[in-house]
Amino acid sequence: MIINSMIVPAVICALLSWMCGVAGSSSCSEAEREALVNFKADIQDPSGRLSSWSGSNGDCCNWRGVECDNTTAHVIKLHLGCPGCFENYVLKGKISPSLLGLKHLRYLDLSDNNFQGIPIPGFLGSMSSLDSLFLGGCGFAGAIPHQLGNLSNLQRLSLRAGRGYVLHADTLQWLPGLSSLRYLNLRKADLSNVSDWLSMVNNLPFLSELDLSNCRISHMPSHLMNVNLSSLAVLDLQRNEFAPTSLPIWVSHLRGLTSLDLRYNDFRGPIPDELQNLTSIRALHLSTNDFNGSIPDWLFSFPHLEDIDLISNKLVGKISSSIGNLTSLVNLDLSFNYGLEFEGGFPTSIKGLCQLSSLCLSGITLKHSVSDVFEILGGECPSETLQVLELDSCQLFGQLSDDIGNLKRLNSLVLTDNSIYGSLPASFGGMASLKYFRIERNKINGTLPVSFGQLAELRNADISQNSIEGVVSSEIHLAKLTKLASLRAAGNHIVLEVKRDWVPPKQLAVLDLSSWYVGPHFPIWLREIEHLVSLDLSNSGILEPFPDWFWGMHSQLFYLNMSRNQIPGRLPNLILAPSVDSLFDLSWNRLEGPLPIISSNMTFLDLSNNFLSGDLLNFLSSNPSQVRQTEFLNLHGNLLSGEIPDYWSSWQSLKVLRLGSNNLTGKIPESIGSLSNLLSLRIQNNSLSGEIPSSLANCSNIVSIDLADNGLEANIPNWIGERGLQKLSILNLRGNKFLGEIPEQLCSLQHLQILDLSHNFLSGNLPQCVGNLSAMSGSRNDDQGVIYLFFGGAKMFVEYQVLVAQGQVKAYSTILNYVRSLDLSWNNLSGEIPEEITRLGTLKYVNLSRNSFSGGIPGDLASMTSLESLDLSGNQLSGAVPPGLASLTFLNHLNLSYNSLSGRIPSSTQLQSFDASSFMGNKGLCGLPLDVNCSSENNSSGEGNEVYWYDMDWWYFISIVLGFLVGFWGAVFPIAVYPNLRSLYFGFVDHMGNKLGTLLMPSAGGSLPASRG
């Protein structure tokens, strides 16, 4: 017993000593340390994240990102993910097979690094101890290795593609091998060739979260037998390429779903009633599909529903007031379903939604007083919880009331594009949490309230395009807005008063005060804004030149608009930060001197309507080796002279080029044809000569060409219609010296909607194929004729065209797509006007005046129902005015003067409303509005059967002459031959003369003098 009593404590002590020794041993094994060191050797680590992985620090369990088991000291986790990291912080290189030496590794996270297109290593499929593998956003490319199917213990797998590299799988047959999988993320992996994806996923009985968004999946099974996904809680299939179909019924069998995301697909038809089986649903995202019909009432009966997203569908009808039953609702977004409206007006039941944080109803027809809406939202629960309210384009009207100040937790308020009028209420300043506020394009008037300056948390405000007036003071309205990052207030009538020592918000990045009065001095306070990237002070009354410091400290500007001021002086070279794609509009000022040298990253430059002079050579040829990113270049309306240099090959990005209304001479250079992206070319109103360069045929995307009012000569080239320029919509060659005939090849331009060849020396006939111009006939209806250019999400440019129409010079821009015009006036064209021209039923303006057209006016003009202006004056047209003209109800300008037309002008309210000058110079025309009566005798048979002298047989005139001669000489001959008869005749005449004199002058008693025999 004594022995035993001594042995037992010794054994226990030894056992405890052994256990304590194991527990205290926290150093990883040499093999695992070596595996990590070898892994690091193949990794590029620019920021030194793995700097602790070194021999001097031998215990790898203490290395950054390494986690060991507390008992065995084996490496079990590697935390090397880098979400949100900058590029100079991420890991690169390759994945070493040395990781296979980590036999106990359960968790591997390499997500959001950048392995620059290498494939996912297949050896990862041999790391059988892994239960979590995160490789999302790592820049892997190529096929997903099927070896991953060997990881039977894996519970979480993320292979989310990213960084512009394509990761794909042609089969998912390996997926069922992951029998323990609970989380699967293949976002952005290309699964377009996988048709059995659903049946493969259906073999994962423990799967609770599945993300196959943006995977280019095209096949959506309508049925699935024996759904095994009872554990699935989260399903994300957004942004795929499913063929248009109704929502498959098998989705409704996933009764455990708490989140369903089907956004940005092409599902259509009504929202299926079977979805009401998803009684556990908390988040339902069905936006940007083609669902139609009404919102079903059962949707408002889900007890746990927190998030409803039905944006941008085609839902119509009434929204039930039972929406107030969704007491768990946090986010509701029904925006941009333009056929929806609330049953009985804006529902008061919303007052009971005590969890509501975000309410977005943009585009929903409310037709409601805005004050009533805020009275509802400002009472009870929403006033305490509501943070986001978006009601733009809701047809709201009326004035904002003080109830708006009750929404004290509101941080985002959007009321854009309504009919709200009146002043902003003083209670506006009570929304102390407001960070984002938009009320642009309403009818707000009055002055900006002082309370606006109390919104200390405001970061983004847009009050532009209203009628706010008065003074905005830096001291009263702006001093406390220290967090303001964006202020857009263009289009109001405001005077800015700034104290000399005012310091604007340091983080202000976007400032748009267009049409405010900021001048006359250049605003020196701009010097205090260090991070400004967008500035619009256009039409602001500035009369001083740019100071030198402006260009030095604002080289990071990507948008600058100082147009429509009176800024004088010279521009320095505009060399900007290399990472910035810049848009500068300095048009309509008084800038002078030579053109500045610009950075290659100047995307948009408008220097039009200034006094810039000199030639284009230095401007175009500086840094010829640099590829220019400029897409829009407008130098119109300056004093530029000399020839257009042949240096366009480095300007390949140009889409719009405007050099019009300068003093440019010489020929159009051949290198213009290298601008393959060109959409619009305007070099009108210069002194150019020579021919149109044939290289222009290479600009196959061009839509608009305006070379008017130059001295270009030779024939109009056939290649304009033969090849290349098949997208051409506008061709203006007005006022040049072009000779020869109009080429028939122009008739093949199926998009041509404006053709102006007037004021040239063209001859020959008007081709009959003119009737084939589809865009003028209405057989083609597209919108490519209008050029819009968007930069930074904003519409920066709209194509325009100046036309001579309705006898006036007009400029068209926003409605240019609806304009159809044919102007061939002031040429030497001859022959008949082809009847085929009447096929052009959408033509609005036709001018064929001052030519030598003969024959009649085409009779089927009634088919040209859109015609607003018709000028056929100064030709040799004959025959009658076609009755069809009287049926052209849109015709408001008509000129048929100085032809050889004849007959009665057809009677109609339309034609008789024109001035007589519309018909003058046609000697054979009669009837209103001319002051020439048509013969009533010849009109006895009714209108349309008139007989005039120019229509009678010539024998008729001969018989009249003969009858006159016979009658005349029958009376005169006897008097001339017989004297007695002559004396008797003159005596009778004297007697009758005396009698007539007595009657005419009885008071004078005189008589008419006697006739002499």
Shape: globular
- First-to-last CA distance: 194 Å
Number of strands: 65
Largest sheet: 33 strands, mixed
> What is the fold named in CATH at topology level of one domain?
Leucine-rich repeat, LRR (right-handed beta-alpha superhelix)
* Helical residues, percent: 10-25%
Annotated CATH architecture of one domain:
Alpha-Beta Horseshoe
Helix tally? Answer: 13
- What value does the average pLDDT take? 86
Q: Strand portion, in percent?
A: 15-25%
Low-confidence stretches: 1-25, 936-960, 977-1013
Question: Overview of this structure, please?
Answer:
A hairpin with a 2-residue loop joins strand 55 and strand 56 (808-812). Helices cover 12% and strands 22% of the residues. Helix 12 crosses helix 13 (979-1000). It has a 33-stranded mixed sheet, with no helix packed on it. It has 1013 residues and is of the alpha/beta class. It is globular and about 120 Å long. Among the domains are: 448-457 and 465-566, Leucine-rich repeat, LRR (right-handed beta-alpha superhelix) (Alpha-Beta Horseshoe); 962-1000.
